[in-house]
Amino acid sequence: MKILMVTSEAVPYAKTGGLADMVSALSICLAKLGHDVRIVIPRYYSIDRSNFKLLPDAMGTPMGEGVEEWSAVYETDMPGTDKKNPVKVYFIDHEIFFGRDGIYGNPTETDFIDNSRRFIFFCRASFQLCRKLEWYPDVLHAHDWPAAVAPVYLKFAERLPGIKSKFSNTVSLLTIHNLGYQGIYHKDNFDYAGLGWDVFYNAGFEDWSMLNMLKAGLYSADKINTVSPNYAEETKTNEHGFRLDGVLRYRNADYCGILNGIDTTVWNPSKDTYIPENYSVKNLEGKAKAKEALQKEFGLPRDPNVPVIGIVTRLTDQKGVGELFGPTYGSVWSICRDMDLQMVLLGSGEQWCESEIAGLSSRLSNFKAKIGYSEKISHLIEAGSDFFLMPSRYEPCGLNQMYSLVYGTLPIVRSTGGLVDTVENFNEKTGEGTGFMFDLLDPSSIYNTVGWAVWAWYNRREDIEKMRIRGMTQDFSWEKSAEKYIELYKATQKAQGIK
Ligand code: ADP
Ligand code: GLC
């Protein structure tokens, strides 16, 4: 199959979260299965293009308001793919839209004022790219709100019924990675899309007189999915639907959840190059070394007997940071004050949270934090911690808890979204489970559940060791999920009467 991934993030080029990991790992896996997979992504200023191939001739993309946008196109093979069937990556290089620091915003302008135009243009440019390459996909697979208008262009401009076009046999799938971000902007920006105002209403852009890019994609894509079965169910409810639950219930027959995998070439304790010594279920000595290195890295006393709780996260409301670090009510203060444990954090995000964390680490001797982004330290935390704390308000899938499990680190998580599909709660009677779970998101539930895990550490060590092994032997590799995507692509073709 010929598959075009339309995305605003992909590792190793641009990443703010798990979306970037997912798109690249899925693409690499699909290519391994023999499919022709190509990724199109904006060329942000931070992406070094010096080793890419510049394709001949600038590419024109006709937009509304009589504008024609000109961009350069760069091409490269994704590292880590088979040379015989590489994943090809195409970068749309448009100076005005993408020649600036930041993907969606920067510290002074957190959401760029022209984001709707930047990403509407990007979606339309994806079709021009296919024309330029004379390569027309069987499946256009769009990810999240920045790519959500691509399925709209397919349905309302490129694949019109009764009109023969190069895209007549293309079907679309839109994957929701995070319903909390929808791309809502002033509707005056819609003229720029060049689609006509009937499409504003028919394609579902209209949202209380605003322009909602994700909503239009959810109405217009041939099929939609999200990144775990449990989150697919949750998003159809008022509590988790971010006002789009009605749309998702309306599209229920075309909507499903497919659990993300993890890239086991990168996240694998027996191959990891960031940790002091590799380890596996057969020999856990390397994990003890990683714990020692982690304690050293964070300036904590090197003590194998005290449990270490790790956190790696974007510091944003989705991740439960209010309940952890909120001034006066956050639970981390009392957890670290009352319990015999060490806690380490790596993260960046909201300003208030970064400064609360700095304050806490100066007042607590057993809580240490690094504000920033670091692949190396995130690997060290996964390997060296005994527990991994993730009290998410909502979690479409979550990758960190899966990384933790395969590194023998027990997740302490809220039972929500993909966390329910991947973690199994500790059963004190049987000693079974892979982690510790709680339902309600409030500081005292976090306090009590961390307390439960710490109790088990000091009183049920055999159970803890068994749980580690159970976690480490789970199969979270992409192969299974990639097969499910292929089935979904085929079902989409069938539903559209193609093939
Ligand atoms: P989300 O995409 O909602 O942030 P996921 O758990 O799916 O949540 O993915 C988060 C990804 O981002 C993981 O690969 C995690 O290791 C990484 N990550 C988040 N914050 C940092 C950080 N400060 N440094 C390094 N990696 C980070
Ligand atoms: C989003 C979600 C996260 C998911 C990731 C990859 O960022 O917040 O739960 O794992 O996308 O699909």
Task: Give the secondary structure arrangement, pairings included.
Layout: E1 2-6, H1 18-32, E2 36-42, E3 53-54, E4 59-62, E5 68-77, E6 88-93, H2 95-98, H3 115-133, E7 139-143, H4 144-147, H5 149-158, E8 171-176, E9 184-186, H6 197-202, E10 206-207, E11 210-212, H7 213-220, E12 223-226, H8 229-234, H9 245-250, E13 255-257, H10 285-297, E14 308-315, H11 321-325, H12 332-338, E15 342-349, H13 351-363, E16 367-371, H14 375-384, E17 387-390, H15 400-406, E18 410-414, H16 417-422, E19 436-438, H17 443-459, H18 461-472, H19 478-495
Parallel strand pairs: 1-2, 1-7, 2-6, 7-8, 8-12, 12-13, 14-15, 14-17, 15-16, 17-18, 18-19
Antiparallel strand pairs: 3-5, 4-5, 5-6, 9-11, 10-11
Helix pairs in contact: 1-19, 3-5, 5-7, 10-14
Report on this model:
By secondary structure, this protein is of the alpha/beta class. It is 37% helix and 19% strand. The chain contains 19 helices and 19 strands. The protein has helices at 18-32, 95-98, 115-133, 144-147, 149-158, 197-202, 213-220, 229-234, 245-250, 285-297, 321-325, 332-338, 351-363, 375-384, 400-406, 417-422, 443-459, 461-472, 478-495, and strands spanning 2-6, 36-42, 53-54, 59-62, 68-77, 88-93, 139-143, 171-176, 184-186, 206-207, 210-212, 223-226, 255-257, 308-315, 342-349, 367-371, 387-390, 410-414, 436-438. The strands form three sheets. Strands 1, 2, 3, 4, 5, 6, 7, 8, 12 and 13 form a ten-stranded mixed β-sheet that branches. Strands 16-15-14-17-18-19 form a six-stranded parallel β-sheet, sandwiched between helices. A three-stranded antiparallel β-sheet has the order 9-11-10. Strand 10 (206-207) and strand 11 form a beta hairpin. Helix 10 (285-297) packs across helix 14 (375-384). It is globular, with a radius of gyration of 23 Å. It starts with a strand and ends with a helix. The mean pLDDT is 97. The structure holds adenosine-5'-diphosphate and alpha-D-glucopyranose (GLC). Adenosine-5'-diphosphate binds at residues 17-18, 21, 312-314, 346-348, 373-375, 378, 397-400.
